[in-house]
Every structure is written in C-alpha cells, then in structure tokens.
C-alpha cells in the first residue's frame, strides 16, 4: 500500500492540510488493543529476561556436569544475556523490512530451538553456540519488537505502559527460578532445558499479538505528539532538532524512490493485464514476478530506512545527546548486573548466609524492582513532571547505592541498599520513553536497538571484569567502586551534552523544520 498525495504532503511537513481537518484518533492508541500489546510485552519479559536472571540454577548444573572452570562456564550465561541486547541494531533491520510481528515469531522459534539443542550438549563449547548464540539471537529478535510495539501504541501513558510491561522481568525471575529448580530436581538439567524450550514457543504467540498499526495511524500519532510537545516542553526536546532537520533533507530521495517503486509495480501490473487479454499460460509466471517485485521493493525500502538511520543524512549519530546516551548505556547496565552475580559471595564473606537464606538480597532487589518500574512510570506520566528529570534522579540514586554498598557490613544495611538499588533501577522502564523523546517514533526501533546493544556490551564484559578485579585485590569493594565511577562518567555525559546543545545557535535547516 502506498501513500496518497495528501499523505505525502503530510509526510513532508505540509501541516496546513493536516490542521485544517479534524483528526479522529485511533481507539487502539492508549486503549483497546494497546493493552494486549502490554500483555504480550509482559509475557516476553517473563520468558526472556526472567529466564536469563534464573540462569544461576543451570550454571551450577553445568559446573558439575562438565567440570570446567567457573570463568569459562560463566561465559555461557554472559553470551546469552549479552547477545540478546547486542544484536539490537541488526534486529532493527528485520523490523524495518518485515515488521515487529514477523520478527518476533521467527525469534520465538529460534529461541526455543536454542534451548532444545542445548539439552544435547556434550561440552561447554557446544553451549556457547546453541544457548549463547542461537538462543541469544532469538531472544533479541523478540525483545526489541516487544519494546517498540508498546512505544507505538501509547502516547499519553507511555511510561506507565512500559513500566507495566517490563515488570515481567521481576516476576519472571521468581517464576523461572522456581520452575528451573523444580525441573532440574525432578527431571535433570537436560530435560529441564528441553521443557523450557517448549515453553519458549509461547513467544510466537506473543509475537502474533503484535498487530501493526497502519501508516495513517502512525502519522496521526506523530501529529498529536508534536502538538502536545509544543504545549509541554521537555528537557530532551531540544535534541530532536537534529533528527527533524536532517529528516527534512532526506525526504526528497525517499519520494523519488517511492515513485520509482510505483513505476515498477505499475509496469508489472500492465504486463499482467496484457497477459490476461492475450494468453493465460503466463499468468502464473507473472504473479510470481509481481510477488518477487513487491518483496524486492520491501527489502530495499527497509534497508534504505535502516541504513539512513545509522549512516545517512538523518543519521542518529548526528544527535549529540543520543551519542551521550549511548556512552551512558555502556556503563549503566553492568552496575545493575554485578550485584546479582557477586552478592552471594559477599554475603558468604560477611558470614550472613543464615539471614540471606531466609530472605535473599537478590530477591529484595527483584521485588522492589517491580514496584520501582511501575511507580516511576506513573510519576513520569504526571503533567507537571519531566520524564528526563525522573530518569536522571533515578540514575543518581542507583550510582550512589553502588558506591556505598561495599561500606555496609550488616544484613540490614545491605538489605536497605539493595532495596534502593531495586527501586532506582526501575528507570529501565523509562529508557524507551526517553529514547523516543530524543529521536522520535520513526527512529525508535533503530535507536533503541543501539541503546540495548550498548547495554549488552556492558552485560557481557561487566561481571567478568569485576571478577578479574577481585582476583587481583581479593576484595569486591574495588569492583563496585570502579563500576560506580564509570557509571558516574556516563551520567556526566548526559548532563554536559544538553547544555552544549542549548548554547549552540540553531542552523537554517532547523529553523525551517520548526516553521
């Protein structure tokens, strides 16, 4: 389906035609099917992120089965968690070509296949390929569409919707830990992974629920958002000028390419009509030609959008605040993962195992993390509150907790700090909202793919780096101090770049885009 002339005029900034007509909002925006999208994303977080947070159960089984070093065996879990996030930019290409629904369904099949093949592992290196790579890529193909679809379906309640959907991580951590522990006890770890693979096929059902919005609905949502942003100024709103101005300069090539695509399909249809009047033997071949032509156009269009987002005139990397956001993401996620990996050992060193067995510190983080996502989402949706400011305050709280955690020597002190870590890390639900405010809805899939890729790098190398620091100093204190200082560097980048952006004079293209 191609846009009409009126739609094209809308796309190229002809606001006079749009504002003269009353826009009838889609009932599925902020309501209706949008809540089914939230349910789908919630289940995806349970099955993917919840399972990854429960991999400690399987890690113990792998250590006993293969008798390898702890460092080598730990890479199986690190690969799965890291690759799930690192493949984000490439999954953005699949979304541009195939859409979120198809990408998520294929990813669900691939994830289940990785679990099932891992049940037949003969060594740790086999798990690197089947579980780390195969299941990790499949998880990434489902996770990114689940986040993007929530952003597309919500306008007024985006932060709340993202908060509700991402609480599946905390629920999944409890459910999957109990499930894997039970399955490993009753059936062994191999059968447990086989059963978990069958359960993971439900990701395909979650993908099927991701019904795409029509291009008209997306355009109307963008117009409503632009009107609301004029009346409500947000802190990161100035950073969208770069993307908007660059987007105007790249519209003309898109128009020419669209006209060429229409010409190709028109010629194929003309041949098809001539074939009907002449002979019917070539109709089957003409239909195949038409299908191939449409598929080629879809692939070219998706790749062009993906390529322009990263390397073209409207490249996301021309947005300095977004680049600072990427640098922040490279240090942020490891500060959340490291406590999950090393807290049990810290508790053992402090002789607090008895108290921790009653109520584990990691469980405190997971429980409060659920409430943190929901509460921060509700606060961010208040008319008088800036999502950007809530995001920054939560980051400051988390980095403070990371730096003070080594100073706590009692269970009560550690429990209080862990509760604050869990609550402040609820800002994860605000990341898609902040990303969309920075780059706009059109670039959300590719932009958020870059952000979670940076998080994946952090998750992949953060815990091993902390373990290496412990091997040198024989203390976990320096691991938290270094992680906290690097995290603070990322936050400083977020604070400096907006100030620089405000001081820079607006160029001519930016002023024309705003007019």
Automatic annotation (TrEMBL):
Topology in membrane: Multi-pass membrane protein
Region (Disordered): 1-23, 229-263
Compositionally biased tracts (Basic and acidic residues): 1-18
Transmembrane regions listed in the UniProt entry: 33-55, 75-95, 102-120, 126-148, 160-180, 192-210, 321-341, 361-379, 386-405, 411-434, 446-466, 478-496
Major facilitator superfamily (MFS) profile domain: residues covered: 37-502
Cellular component terms per the entry's GO annotation: membrane
Gene encoding the protein: Slc16a14
Compositional bias annotation for Polar residues: 237-249
Descriptive protein name: MOT14 protein
Keywords of the record: Membrane, Transmembrane, Transmembrane helix
Compartments, record wording: Membrane
GO molecular function: monocarboxylic acid transmembrane transporter activity
Organism listed in the record: Pardalotus punctatus
């Amino acid at each position: 389906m191609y846009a009409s002339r009126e739609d094209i005029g809308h796309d190229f900034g002809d606001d006079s035609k749009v504002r003269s007509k009353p826009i009838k909002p889609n009932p599925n925006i902020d309501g209706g099917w949008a809540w089914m999208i939230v349910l789908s994303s919630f289940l995806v977080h349970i099955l993917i992120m919840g399972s990854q947070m429960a991999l400690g159960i399987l890690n113990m089984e792998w250590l006993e089965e293969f008798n390898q070093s702890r460092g080598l065996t730990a890479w199986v879990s690190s690969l799965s968690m890291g690759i799930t996030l690192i493949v984000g930019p490439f999954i953005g290409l699949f979304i541009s070509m195939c859409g979120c629904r198809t990408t998520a369904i294929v990813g669900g099949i691939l994830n289940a296949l990785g679990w099932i093949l891992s049940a037949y592992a003969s060594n740790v290196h086999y798990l690197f390929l089947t579980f780390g790579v195969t299941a990790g890529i499949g998880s990434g193909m489902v996770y990114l569409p689940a986040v993007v679809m929530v952003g597309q379906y919500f306008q007024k309640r985006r932060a709340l919707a993202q908060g509700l959907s991402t609480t599946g991580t905390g629920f999944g951590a409890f459910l999957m830990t109990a499930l894997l522990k039970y399955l490993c006890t009753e059936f062994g770890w191999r059968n447990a992974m086989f059963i978990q693979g069958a359960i993971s096929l439900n990701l395909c059902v979650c993908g099927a629920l991701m019904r795409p919005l029509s291009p008209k609905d997306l355009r109307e949502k963008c117009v409503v958002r632009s009107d609301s942003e004029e009346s409500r100024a947000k802190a990161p709103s100035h950073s969208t000028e770069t993307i908007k101005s660059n987007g105007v300069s790249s519209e003309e090539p898109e128009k020419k390419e669209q006209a060429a695509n229409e010409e190709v399909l028109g010629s194929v249809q003309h041949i098809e009509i001539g074939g009907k009047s002449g002979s019917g033997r070539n109709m089957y071949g003409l239909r195949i030609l038409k299908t191939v032509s449409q598929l080629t156009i879809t692939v070219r269009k998706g790749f062009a959008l993906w390529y322009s987002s990263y390397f073209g005139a409207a490249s996301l990397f021309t947005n300095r605040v977004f680049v600072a956001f990427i640098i922040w993401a490279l240090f942020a996620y490891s500060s959340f993962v490291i406590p999950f990996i090393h807290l049990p050992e810290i508790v053992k060193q402090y002789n607090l195992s008895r108290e921790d067995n009653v109520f584990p510190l990691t469980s405190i983080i997971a429980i409060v993390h659920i409430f943190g996502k929901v509460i921060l989402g509700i606060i961010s949706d208040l008319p008088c509150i800036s999502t950007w400011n809530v995001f920054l305050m939560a980051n400051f709280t988390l980095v403070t907790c990371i730096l003070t955690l080594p100073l706590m020597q009692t269970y009560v002190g550690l429990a209080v700090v862990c509760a604050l870590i869990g609550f402040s890390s609820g800002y994860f639900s605000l990341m898609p909202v902040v990303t969309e405010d920075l780059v706009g809805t059109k670039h959300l899939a590719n932009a958020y793919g870059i952000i979670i890729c940076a998080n994946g790098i952090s998750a992949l190398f953060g815990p091993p780096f902390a373990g290496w620091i412990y091997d040198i100093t024989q203390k976990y204190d320096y691991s938290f101090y270094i992680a906290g200082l690097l995290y603070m560097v990322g936050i400083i980048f977020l604070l400096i770049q907006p100030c620089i952006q405000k001081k820079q004079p607006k160029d001519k293209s930016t002023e024309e885009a705003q007019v």
